[in-house]
Amino acid sequence: MLAVLAMIVTMSACGSPSGPRAIPTKPPPTPSSSSTPAADASAAPTPVATLIAVGDIAVCDAEGDEATGSLVARLDPEATVATLGDLAYPDGSEQTYSECYDPVWGAWKDRTRPALGNHDVFLDGGQAYAAYFGDAAGTPGEGWYSYDLGAWHVVVLNSNCRLIGCGEGSEQLTWLTADLAQHPATCTLAYWHHPRFSSGRHGDDEDVAPLWDALVAADADVLLVGHDHLYERFAPRDGLRAFTVGTGGGPLTEVEHLDAGSEVTIDNSYGVLELTLRPDGYDWRFLEADAEAAAADIGSTDCH
């Protein structure tokens, strides 16, 4: 289907605060004058995972991707890297992936879980993208897949809706609904390329509304997108908080209006979003590539 295929992570572009899982333990031994209750050695540690997200990344004759790459290199070496589409400019091809994207961002290829952008499908419908990332990109010809990260369920979708289909009866929406039903996790995160809501020049995208609605119906918590080359975090809408993170290295673009629910916008700096995924919630930090100081946007909330 990618053969017929032809938009930045405000991580927030959506979401809201929200509950924990109990780990069973054995009853403590009766204490004596010479002993204290022993810890349960069989209790599993609380799963916490790190996700680093950004889209709109590599331009061969520019250095924005090198700046964000240097930032990623200083972060958790075990973190999963979520690339939010438009990974190589001007178009995704074997040459631009190998000459523009791979020299810097290829360093994390083995822990990258990508999403397709519009520039990734312009030339060949995404064939070069699928060949470069292999199994990590899901089934060739689709562009959607899911995986578990710590205690979280993560869904990756293809927002090139006018080519792949996102609406009622589409293969992708049918798959999404079934996948969410099969993975009723306490915390759920999704990412794709085109923002449902945005204060950037591309604005709100109605085509992805069915995907958004399916996430809301399943009580998902976080959505990450790119496409508009800025950072934006939204207040939760119907429990779903969106982040736009299109600050990976492509030319930055300005905020053009203030969309309803927008809480933070940053349109003058490259950077990445770092999420700490706890079993019952998440912490976020937007880190600017040219700043050594504290994060430009930081927060914490529970899953709902």
What is the C-alpha radius of gyration, as a whole number of Å? 20 Å
Question: What's the end-to-end separation, in Å?
Answer: 35 Å
Order of helices and strands: EEEHEEHEHEEHHEHEEEEEEE
Beta strand %: 15-25%
- Count up the helices: 6
**How would you classify the helix and strand content by structural class?**
alpha/beta
Outline the low-pLDDT stretches.
Answer: 1-39
How is the main sheet built?
8 strands, mixed
Question: What is the average per-residue confidence, as pLDDT, rounded to a whole number?
Answer: 87
What shape does the CA trace take?
A: globular
Assign a percent range to the helix content: 10-25%
Number of strands: 16
Core attributes:
disordered N terminus, 304 residues, 6 helices, six-stranded mixed β-sheet, globular, alpha/beta, 18% helix, 16 strands, eight-stranded mixed β-sheet
Please, could you describe this protein's structure?
It is a single chain. By secondary structure, this protein is an alpha/beta fold. The protein is built from 6 helices and 16 strands. It has helices at residues 64-73, 94-105, 127-133, 161-164, 171-182, 209-217; strands spanning 13-15, 49-54, 58-59, 80-83, 88-89, 112-114, 145-149, 152-156, 188-191, 222-225, 231-234, 240-245, 262-266, 271-278, 281-288, 297-302. Strands 1, 7, 8, 9, 10, 11, 12 and 13 form an 8-stranded mixed sheet that branches. The two termini are 35 Å apart. The relative contact order is 0.23. Mean pLDDT is 87; it is low at 1-39.
